[in-house]
Amino acid sequence: MSDSEIRVRQRPVYICGHKNPDTDSICAAIAYANLKNKIYGDNYIACRAGRLNEETQFVLSYFDVDEPPYIADVRARLRDIDIRLVDSANPSDPIKEAGTRMYDSNVTTLCVTEDEKVVGTITMSDIVETYMQVRDPEFLSKSGACVGSIASALDGKLVVGEADKKISGGKVKIEPSGDINEGDVIIFSGEEDLTEEVLSGRNISIIICNAHEPSVTKNSDLLEKIKEREIQLITTPYELFIAANLITQSIPVGHVMNSEVPMSFKLDDFLDDVREAMASVRYKYFPVLDRFNRYIGMVSHRNLLGASKKQLILVDHNEKSQAVKGLEEAEIVEIIDHHRLGSIESSGPIFFRNQPLGSTCTIIYLMYKENGVEIDKTTAGLMLSAILSDTLILRSPTCTEIDKEAAQILSKIVGIDYESYGREMFRAGAMLDEKSAEEIIHLDYKIFTVDGQTIGIGQVNSMSDDELDIIREKVSPELDSTREKDKLDMLFLMLTNITERSSDIIYSGEKALTTLKRAFGKDAKEGVVRLSGVVSRKKQFLLNLVETIHA
Length: 551
Known about the structure:
Strand order of the largest sheet: 2-1-13-14-15
Helix content: 25-40%
């Protein structure tokens, strides 16, 4: 099997943040893919596992960066394996051409297409069966064979005639001694058989064997006479016996193909589903179609053997509950994160970089420096945005001196004042008027598992208490229903005032208020627990909850 028969490509490596992505997870995926591609080649693809929030949309628009492609499920699909790019046959092709293509491609089946749509299949068995069953001398006319196909089957030359003219109403005759009728196909051993009697026929096809350099092709008077009688003249280098056997190969594919369209698959079909479907039918090869149902190539059971899993790099998370769907069917090759160790397992050793910094993008910034890769203005802007977002413009207790140094250097590369830009970014992210309560809860939202309890924590950041009060009134009545839909034991939403460095916590769940009281020593007033100085979900809020639940 030659390289040209297979879709040859490097396996892509997808870099993806968590579901309900925030600015850090999106910018980290883009910045890390850029770093990897500069070091190793263009094989790393940044993607997203959910819808972008307003803040992240503002960042991407500000720096003129396209949204990463959305990937809903990382289970292996048909597009992830090698699809055999064997050309299809056309119903008008001679079976010789189909057989040659099968032999060259080392397959026993071809799809037959018209206007790129599959209309049937032809197999090597179909072709062999045709040879064995030809008994009728009118087989060429009954099959609708064309003069050009006859010339092709005999490796010959159409000297006079039209290639697409079909044989109609005649028989195949070998050096006939009797009458020659209109539509007959006559095979002669040499050009000396072109007698006046033969040339008096009308609308016949003449095949001259052993014709390497026939003089008839140089006789203009004779050729003109042949044209006048609407005779098709073909020359072939083969001897009579061979020509008589090969002429069967001019039968068109459409005459012998199986018109039953086999089961087909789309590029986005999951391999598990494809395997199950293949096992239910007797076919060996199956057509692969694009989203417009156009033929692309073929896939067989053998193609699925040892199919590789999608390769995945996780950024800004290492909790299975936060990861893209189908993670257990993917091959995790790296994790870059700044959160606590979670529940994700890998099948073997991987590169895992986890540092107690304010942002995943700070880690990636360090990796640019360590690898000596220059940071362009756009990438600097994305990483700066992520750091400002995760550290609340360097005010969060998660913010380290390394985060501050990175933000200052990146802001110089971009050429902006990070304080004023950060405020503009947060204002853009706080425009939530048209969003439903459930959408607001899930804007910046993560699910954690602690001692068997499933906990959801969302966070909304703003510069204004008035804005947060409006959000609280809108969201509070929907907390219980959202918790039930998400199948959580407890749900918390942090309404964080960046300027005042405080968070109002609204909650749902039988043990939610008790857990808050034990964790922070605060009681609720009108369904709200106010936590002064608490602005970090990771380092302050979640950490206290985990310690309380473990206690």
